[in-house]
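User: structure tokens for this one?
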Amino acid sequence: MAMTQPSSLPRVAHEHHEVIAVHVDRLPQLAAMIGRVDRAEFAAVFERECRFVTGQLVPHMEAIEVALYDELERVMAGRHSMAPMRDEHDLLRRLIGSLCAYRAQSLAGGLGDADEIGLRRVLYRLYAILKVHLAEEEEYLGVLDHALTEAEKDHLAQGLEHAVAEPL
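Assistant:
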């Protein structure tokens, strides 16, 4: 019996989430490094994770909003709004803005004790929200997988791929 290839939409989205999850799981590790490792080592790891967040996570969030959330609202016929997910994206953007401010401060000369506490708070909040948010998105992908035709799923997958600035 031949196995069927999974629909492109769940596959593409899941591949994106797997890459994102690796970086999300590094956020508490980065928080634990603050004030405990050499500044140069911390700065290198912080810079790498900030580049990922701003260069790939944010475009992924924007692609999801454009490619999937409107379609989910249509499919669920108003029975469930995507407003909470969009609100979480807004919260994530604010946290990412704070992360970028700490990044600039770190590059300009370092972080004081209060700044280290603030950065830890941002990193732990990003981690917690992203873990739950990505799990919820996976559940919503199941809704689309059951409600759409293969052609519709392929179209959404292509939209998601094209909307992300850099491949994940």
